[in-house]
C-alpha cells in the first residue's frame, strides 16, 4: 500500500476562529481522501502564514520526501503562498516522483500541463495573499482612525481592550508605566529602572521580569499618552499612516512623554542618565572643557576624591588636562546652585502674581530657534532630492539620509510641541509653583541631603559642568598653577 503525507496548515487569519474545528474538518477531509485512494498516511500540521518559509512541520515533511508517494493538502496555497518557495518545493516533489492529491483533484507533476497548473495556482495564491493583506491593512487603518486598538491581539502593558476594541487602563499595570516615565524624567537609566522594578516585584503580564529592552520600548510608545498609531508598509516603506490623539485615557501626560523623548534624544550624544547609584553629588555631570569628554572621579590611597586626568585623543593628540581635587569643585558648584535660589524665589513670586512674561519670552525664543532648525532640515531634504536627481548619491543613500533627516525633523517638532504645552501651562501655574517651591525647599537643605538625591536634583536643571585645570599632566612640580575653569551649562 502506498504511503502519503497529509499536510495541514492553519493560517494566521484563521487562528482567531475555532482552531480545533478548522483543523479537525481539514484533517477528516484529507483522511477520507487517503482512504478513498487506499493510502496509509502520516499527518503533519502547524499554524503559520503561507509566506513563512520557516515552518518546522513542513521542513520535517520535505526532509522525509523519499518515504512518500503522495502529498495530500486542502489546496496548493496550503503548501506555500510564496512563488519562489513554491517552485523549490515543486522541484523537490518532481525529483521524488510525488503526486499531489486535493479534495478538488489530483496533480501529477510528471505531466507538463499539471506542472504548469501547479505554478499557476501558486502564483494566484501569492496574488490572493497580497490582496488579502492590502484589504486587511486598509481595514486596520480605518479602525485605527476611529481610535480602536487593532495593532495586535494583545493590548500593551497598562491597558486592556474593551468590547469595542478601545484601550482601558489597568491600574495595577499602569503603576509600572508611570514609575518608568517618572524615573526617566529624573534621568535614571533603563538598567537602574529594571533593577527597581525587579526589587518591587513588578512583572510583565505573563509574569516575566521587565528587562531594559522592555523599558526602552515602553518609553517610546505613544500609546501611553492616549495615541493610537498604525501604518501600512509596501516593500518596507510606509505608504499610509494613522495617528489619532485622545483615542483613550492616557497613563502619562503628553508633556511628560515629550520630556522623556527629549531626554532620550539628548542621551544619544552624551551620558545624561545615572548609570549606577551616585555616591558623589556631581557624578556624571563633569565634562572636560578642552576635549568635551566626560571627566571621572576616583579616590586615591588617602581616601581623597580626585577628578581624574583627561586622556582622550583629539585628532591623534591626547588631551592631557591635569587632574584636580574634587571637593573644591563640588563646593564651588553647590554655591552657584544656592545662588539660583533667588532666581527661583523671583520666578515663584512672578507666578503668584501671574507675571510670566520673562518665562514666556524665553520659551518663545527657544521655539523660534527650533523653527529655524526645521527650515534647515527642509532645505537639506530639497538638496538631497537634487543630489539624487543629479546622480550624486544612490537610491539607497538617498532613502537612508532622508529617513535620518525626517527623524530629526520629528524630534524638533516634538520639542516645539513640548514648548507649546509649557506656554499653555503658564496660564495654569499651580503645578509650576509647586515645583519651584520644592526646588527652594531642597536648596535650603542641599548640604545635608544624600549624594544620590542631590545628584538627581542637580540634573533637573544642570546639563553639564565644564571643567579644566588649564594645565597639562607632567612632572614639573615647580610650575605656576593656573586658575581652574568651571562653567555650568544650565538646562
UniProtKB/TrEMBL annotation:
<dbReference type="InterPro" id="IPR038109">
    <property type="entry name" value="DNA_bind_recomb_sf"/>
</dbReference>
<feature type="domain" description="Recombinase">
    <location>
        <begin position="156"/>
        <end position="270"/>
    </location>
</feature>
<dbReference type="InterPro" id="IPR011109">
    <property type="entry name" value="DNA_bind_recombinase_dom"/>
</dbReference>
<dbReference type="GO" id="GO:0000150">
    <property type="term" value="F:DNA strand exchange activity"/>
</dbReference>
<keyword id="KW-0175">Coiled coil</keyword>
<dbReference type="Pfam" id="PF00239">
    <property type="entry name" value="Resolvase"/>
</dbReference>
<dbReference type="GO" id="GO:0003677">
    <property type="term" value="F:DNA binding"/>
</dbReference>
<dbReference type="InterPro" id="IPR036162">
    <property type="entry name" value="Resolvase-like_N_sf"/>
</dbReference>
<protein>
    <submittedName>
        <fullName>Site-specific DNA recombinase</fullName>
    </submittedName>
</protein>
<dbReference type="Pfam" id="PF07508">
    <property type="entry name" value="Recombinase"/>
</dbReference>
<dbReference type="InterPro" id="IPR006119">
    <property type="entry name" value="Resolv_N"/>
</dbReference>
<feature type="coiled-coil region">
    <location>
        <begin position="395"/>
        <end position="433"/>
    </location>
</feature>
<feature type="domain" description="Resolvase/invertase-type recombinase catalytic">
    <location>
        <begin position="3"/>
        <end position="147"/>
    </location>
</feature>
<dbReference type="InterPro" id="IPR050639">
    <property type="entry name" value="SSR_resolvase"/>
</dbReference>
Amino acid at each position: 500500500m502506498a504511503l502519503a503525507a497529509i499536510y495541514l496548515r492553519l493560517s494566521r487569519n484563521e487562528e482567531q476562529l475555532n482552531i480545533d474545528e478548522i483543523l479537525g474538518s481539514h484533517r477528516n477531509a484529507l483522511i477520507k481522501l487517503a482512504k478513498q485512494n487506499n493510502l496509509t498516511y502520516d499527518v503533519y500540521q502547524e499554524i503559520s502564514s503561507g509566506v513563512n518559509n520557516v515552518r518546522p512541520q513542513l521542513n520535517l515533511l520535505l526532509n522525509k520526501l523519499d518515504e512518500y508517494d503522495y502529498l495530500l493538502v486542502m489546496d496548493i496555497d496550503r503548501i506555500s503562498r510564496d512563488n519562489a518557495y513554491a517552485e523549490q518545493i515543486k522541484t523537490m516533489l518532481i525529483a521524488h516522483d510525488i503526486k499531489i492529491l486535493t479534495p478538488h483533484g489530483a496533480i501529477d507533476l510528471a505531466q507538463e500541463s499539471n506542472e504548469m497548473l501547479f505554478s499557476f495556482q501558486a502564483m494566484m495564491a501569492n496574488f490572493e495573499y497580497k490582496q488579502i493583506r492590502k484589504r486587511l491593512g486598509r481595514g486596520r487603518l480605518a479602525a485605527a482612525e476611529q481610535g480602536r486598538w487593532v495593532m495586535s491581539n494583545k493590548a500593551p502593558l497598562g491597558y486592556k481592550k474593551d468590547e469595542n476594541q478601545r484601550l482601558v487602563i489597568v491600574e495595577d499595570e499602569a503603576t509600572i508605566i508611570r514609575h518608568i516615565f517618572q524615573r526617566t524624567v529624573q534621568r535614571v537609566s533603563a538598567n537602574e529602572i529594571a533593577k527597581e522594578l525587579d526589587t518591587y516585584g513588578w512583572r510583565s503580564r505573563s509574569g516575566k521580569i521587565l528587562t531594559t529592552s522592555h523599558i526602552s520600548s515602553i518609553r517610546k510608545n505613544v500609546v501611553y499618552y492616549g495615541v493610537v498609531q498604525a501604518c501600512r508598509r509596501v516593500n518596507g516603506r510606509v505608504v499610509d499612516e494613522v495617528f489619532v490623539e485622545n483615542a483613550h485615557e492616557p497613563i502619562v501626560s503628553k508633556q511628560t512623554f515629550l520630556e522623556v523623548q527629549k531626554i532620550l534624544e539628548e542621551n544619544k550624544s552624551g551620558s545624561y542618565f545615572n548609570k549606577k547609584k551616585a555616591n558623589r553629588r556631581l557624578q556624571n555631570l563633569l565634562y572636560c572643557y578642552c576635549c568635551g569628554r566626560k571627566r571621572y572621579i576616583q579616590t586615591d590611597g588617602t581616601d581623597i576624591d580626585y577628578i581624574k586626568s583627561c586622556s582622550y585623543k583629539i585628532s591623534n593628540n591626547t588631551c592631557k588636562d591635569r587632574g584636580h581635587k574634587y571637593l573644591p569643585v563640588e563646593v564651588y558648584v553647590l554655591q552657584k546652585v544656592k545662588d539660583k535660589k533667588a532666581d527661583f524665589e523671583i520666578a515663584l513670586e512672578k507666578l503668584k502674581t501671574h507675571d510670566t512674561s520673562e518665562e514666556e519670552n524665553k520659551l518663545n525664543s527657544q521655539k523660534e530657534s527650533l523653527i529655524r532648525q526645521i527650515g534647515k532640515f527642509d532645505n537639506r531634504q530639497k538638496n538631497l532630492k537634487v543630489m539624487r536627481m543629479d546622480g550624486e548619491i544612490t537610491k539607497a543613500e538617498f532613502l537612508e539620509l532622508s529617513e535620518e533627516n525626517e527623524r530629526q525633523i520629528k524630534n524638533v517638532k516634538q520639542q516645539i510641541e513640548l514648548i507649546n504645552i509649557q506656554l499653555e501651562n503658564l496660564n495654569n501655574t499651580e503645578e509650576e509653583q509647586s515645583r519651584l517651591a520644592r526646588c527652594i525647599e531642597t536648596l535650603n537643605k542641599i548640604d545635608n541631603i544624600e549624594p544620590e538625591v542631590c545628584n538627581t536634583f542637580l540634573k533637573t536643571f544642570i546639563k553639564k559642568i565644564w571643567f579644566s585645570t588649564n594645565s597639562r599632566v607632567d612632572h614639573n612640580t615647580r610650575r605656576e598653577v593656573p586658575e581652574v575653569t568651571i562653567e555650568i551649562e544650565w538646562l
